[in-house]
From TrEMBL:
This is Coenzyme Q-binding protein COQ10 START domain-containing protein. Required for the function of coenzyme Q in the respiratory chain. May serve as a chaperone or may be involved in the transport of Q6 from its site of synthesis to the catalytic sites of the respiratory complexes. It comes from Spizellomyces punctatus (strain DAOM BR117). GO terms for cellular component: mitochondrion. Interacts with coenzyme Q.
């Protein structure tokens, strides 16, 4: 019997996948939605920062907040870093969750939620900057308040309702803190001026 001939080997070209080194992405997951409010308020950055960073008082005036408590507090590179538990209830949503709150004195307060059963992402950010004096009140204290909220529900069932609702939340939150400032510090130096909104 004659020896078998070796099978013909075909040199197949290698296919390059340019993004093969990148981590796997789930394309069904949309990025977080955001809402943004800017307003000039007739109080100093120090006054408004004091209100926003006082987490323990949120349940007294923040809409839909039923419970607020600071669990821990530490100093880190000139910042105050807090762990705070918040209980919220609004419309069909209700839960308790813990946020890490980073406070840069008189400039910024940012809260990032963790262990939430409702939200994959929930980040609120307050920024404070000295406002621009007006011709009628050149010496009055004003602050440009920049408030933003970024959120993403874990359940797609809530996604179609979230955009309209959180646009309302953004407006109501700024109004609630402005009313709190009025009660704590008295009437504002100027009437609220609406800044950019996006």
């Amino acid at each position: 019997m004659p020896p078998l001939k070796p099978l013909l080997r075909l040199n197949r070209p290698r296919v390059a996948f340019p993004n093969a080194h990148l981590p796997h992405r789930t394309f069904l997951t949309a990025p977080p939605s955001t809402h943004h409010e800017k307003h000039h308020l007739g109080y100093t950055p120090k006054q408004l920062y004091a209100l926003v960073s006082n987490i323990n008082s949120y349940h007294l005036f923040v809409p839909w907040c039923a419970h607020s408590q600071v669990l821990s507090h530490k100093k880190l590179n000139g910042k105050d870093v807090l762990k705070a538990e918040l209980g919220v209830g609004f419309r069909a949503f209700s839960e308790n969750y813990v946020s890490e709150v980073t406070c840069v004195p008189y400039e910024r307060v940012q809260a990032v939620a963790s262990n939430s059963t409702l939200f994959r992402t929930l980040i609120t950010t307050w920024k404070f900057a000295p406002g621009t004096p007006t011709n009628t009140t050149p010496d009055s204290p004003t602050t440009l308040v920049d408030f933003s909220i970024a959120f993403q529900f874990k359940s797609p069932l809530y996604a179609h309702l979230s955009n309209l609702f959180f646009e309302e939340v953004s407006k109501v939150m700024v109004g609630a803190f402005e009313e709190r400032a009025r009660k704590v510090y008295g009437p504002p130096a100027i009437v609220r001026r609406v800044g950019d909104r996006r």
